[in-house]
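Help wanted!
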Amino acid sequence: MPTSTVEQYIKTIYQQEERCAQDIVQMKQLSEAMGVTPGTATAMVKHLAERKLIRYEPRKGVRLTAGGRELALLMVRRHRLIETFLENVLGYDLSEVHEDAEKLEHAVSDKFIERIDAYLGFPPADPHGDPIPSAEGHIARRDSVPLDHCETGDTIRVARLRNDDPAFLLLMKEQHLTPGEAFVVIDKNETAGTMTVRHDARSRGPITPFTISMGNSSRIMVEPTGTK
Amino acid sequence: MPTSTVEQYIKTIYQQEERCAQDIVQMKQLSEAMGVTPGTATAMVKHLAERKLIRYEPRKGVRLTAGGRELALLMVRRHRLIETFLENVLGYDLSEVHEDAEKLEHAVSDKFIERIDAYLGFPPADPHGDPIPSAEGHIARRDSVPLDHCETGDTIRVARLRNDDPAFLLLMKEQHLTPGEAFVVIDKNETAGTMTVRHDARSRGPITPFTISMGNSSRIMVEPTGTK
DNA sequence: CTGTACTTTTTGATTAATCAAAATAAAACC
DNA sequence: GGTTTTATTTTGATTAATCAAAAAGTACAG
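Answered by r_m:
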């Protein structure tokens, strides 16, 4: 039985592989994501390699083994189901769910998770729009792209918000930039490093344009719904 | 912020004070209840005393300070609300709630607990019949007595089951010996160390008599409803 | 190819929680 | 009242996770 620290490292390695589309995660990246000193990460990584959860290539980085990926997906499942429960049932705000889920995911039993899943009606995705892995570790692939890959005139729908920062999530909520909402890209200014979008005329949101930095827009995953 | 181990020791000391109606808890009692060696308990107790959560009298035992009691009641509140949630909402069996609650109570936030409380409609007691302390640490006193203090002919109502052993709880459930049920004591055999009860004629349970050991009956708290 | 900057690993220490076993104190027993 | 039993404390060691700071390796800029 892995400790909750081990679970957290494995989940973090998975997330770094995913988010940065890398097959290997460097120590600096891992130690920063975990909020520990590099030496600590090195020590832990050796331990994880012994447990056969990752493959460790000294001075290069780490990658998950099949067993590690399985554990990571289990943790992601727990996290996303808990977040969904906190929002849908207990009325948490989207910006508040992450913190509590992060603690709970290491304390819940399999039984608890399966009961929550059933109670929620087996939701396919969490409130951020991220797909929830099945109990067997299958996860739906979605062909969404970061908003900053879109061009002026593209019509899109928000798929997921790939950022746990409460302030960011609050801002997105205020602008109704939440999963499912339809938008049009009305400007992309590479020089200024900003993008401007407004709600699709047919959607119920405000039509006031909203400008965001490229950095933030890379955390907003969208599905193209056509190009004007 | 106390670690979950500290929380567990404080809760255990509170429970030992309560269950055994003692004002001081010996080290042996504490170490056994915690499932650690006596030396470990001594070391921890010194630490708890430094944190002003208990008063430690070497070679005598420990007792909670006001601050310790406050923390203990907070933990009891968490435990009982979580148990209630697991049974009422997620459909856990009474014999299964304890184990999961024991882990969760150290991982939940105050916000989570207050939301659960509201979701459950501010229940006064958990599924064992134990009163749930308020957020301010007030707990309802109940004038219940252990079943083994009753005499033949007493009519009683089950108030709480003061035992977390799943097998015991399952047995009680099978016999409908659950909080709220009305019974008559039809025999008390001090020599054999057993007591026999049957459901009150007016109640919906079976009228087949049921015999239990004195040991077990001391864990069944009842409220007298009159003496024939 | 050489030096500076950056990343990674190593080393030595620390904290929380634990155990086993020896030492000590208190209680109980005849 | 001395002996035995039982409870408690002490001591020394261990494990998991961490940090700070020194050492070692890698990268690339000129």
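OP: Thanks! One thing I noticed: Helices of chain B lie at 4-19, 27-34, 38-50, 66-88, 94-104, 110-119, 166-174, 214-217.
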